[in-house]
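We now fix the convention by which a protein and its fold are recorded. Think of the row as the fold of the chain written in a discrete alphabet. Here is one such record, which you should read through line by line.
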Amino acid sequence: MQKLQLYIEGERVHLFEDETVSITQTIQNIKDIDKVFTDFSKTFTLPASKKNNKIFKHYYNFNIDIDSGFDGRIKKSATIELNSIPFRQGKIKLEGVNLKNNKPSAYRITFFGNTVVLKDLFGEDSLSALVFADSNNKVYSPSSIQNALQLDPKTNDVIASLITHTQRLFYDSSTGDSSKTAGNVFYHTQSSANPFHGVKWSDLKYAIRLDVIIKAIETRYGIVFSNDFFVNTNAPYYDLFIWLHRKKGNVESASGFNASIINGWVATSLGDTDTKMASSSVLRVEGNPLKYPSYSLALSPNVSTAYSVSLQLNGIEVYNTGTVSNNVTINQSDFNIAQGDYTAFISSNADIAFSSIEWDINYRPTGAQFFSNTYTTTGTYQHSNVFNFNINQQIPEMKVIDLLTSVFKTFNLTAFVDKNTNEITVKTLNSFYSGGNSYDITKNIDSDSSSVDVALPYREINFEHGDTKTLLAKQHEQLFGKGWGKTEFTNNGEKLDGSIYNVKTGFSQLKNERLIDVNGANNTDIQYGFFVDDNQESYYGMPLLFYPVRQTSSTQISFLTNDTTKVPLTTYNVSSNSVSLSSSVSGANINFHAETNEYGGLEDPVDNGFTDSLFEVYYRNYITSVFNPANRLTKVTAYLPLRIFLNYTLADRFVISGNSYKINSITTNLQTGKSEIELLNDLW
């Protein structure tokens, strides 16, 4: 028997002597390969001993003051030890208390592994809850978009690329027909009845590097991802951008008024440390909301000008004033205060100054005594009509957990917590398995309780991004009978038993278009993305993932700074599904299928297809081993010695009678050391 010990926030708790505590661990289960952030959780009971009653502060007693009692809504840090040696770290949550004869008999708790806690940590927060550096926020104007369109995406985190959401572009070097000039990006100086044509600056939007979002997640939630995959030397990841397209239509109509976040808050009185300014623009409420019977956000403009105020909690709007023109107060009758980060946005179509903007939060910790925290902006707050493109306001409406899950599905990533550093190690599945050790457990298995089962539960596995509904992608599907970038893996067309399994991300994907000079049918250097539906209407869709590629060539494009002014650009960013426009250059792309190169075209015999698809680079080894007729699911019972049990990882191999196996799943009774292990043949 092994000695099991549990510590909650450093305090050892009492355990039932006969309590069975078993955990199941898996990293990439053949039965459910679509799941990420896998880890274990286990619910068990603790005796209502004097020690445990003290730790849980007599939770069964309803009359205990809420400020001094145990808060069952919050997970507590915990550690499991085996024979006084640390085994796993995570969190525990109190589920409830069992009573007998109105007296406590047991506490029900759940122990969560650290990667399970991640999902709980993110909760329902959207990407707009993240805090981005001020340098990431831009002015939205013709000159700023023109500059962003020419920035090098290798060295700049916020850029613009040739992706339009209303205007279909074309290239026509013949200038005589003024009736077809609207979307013509051919630049010339000729005057005609309608000479001002090209790509409209207002039809372009900024894009932000995916890595900046990942770093903001780390900062917001106090976590650290390893530099195995999320690193600037990994071009297939680091060169990816997310298009800042929050609503269909242009940026102005998407946001209503021109909007800016209220910042410059300072504390003029402070009686409660449960509220504080997390930054110059973020009010953080950490204490019990029940302590706050009154709270308000009051604004006093200097002049009567139409404006609106949006109040957001963790990036989600909780109240909007609608259009107002005078003093306005948002208070407890308008929204229920809760723990989290509050931001406020002022929107207006005109410049507007405020003589005062003030947060007042009154609280009553005990009795009838009131205290007050007051936060005001420094000086006179000025909202300018110059459009401030704030990342929080323009980033797509996507949950944090959904973004991470989609990234993990895209690149077939695994995540586990390093027990020595507490870093969240992120690796591709290929890389994960390449670093494992081997343990010979032949002498440790129960030879009377083994079985060998058919491993393959599927007849087909489909891989695709969640949204490929743009015009050109739909046309591709109609012409070829298969979705753009989608792949299906079968056993070379052989009919097998089993179900169809779908691996789908939460991203949009474009089929881009290389422009041809319609006056002569010659290719140009211009590739762009047309983010409209098959009715050629602007739509929102899922967040767009793409590679911006900087082009410098003699093929000028006409850039419209307004209805009567155009400028020539020879350097600009184009939209691509690959890190390189040329498929003859090795580089990953974000198609699951090795699609035709949009830039090379079907007519190019050398450069007409990308081979480094997501499936080929990140999934093929694993999936082909799954479908391999030699694959088996071997089940054994083993009593692993403590030296193995405390040190093995799911990347390791177990060797039995000279045969090597990967671990599919392992369930272990922590007291007895008995493990039920599912193993897969080590075929790659």
Q: What stands out?
A: The longest helix spans residues 614-627. Confidence is low (pLDDT under 50) at residues 603-607. The radius of gyration is 29 Å. The first strand starts at residue 4 and ends at 8.
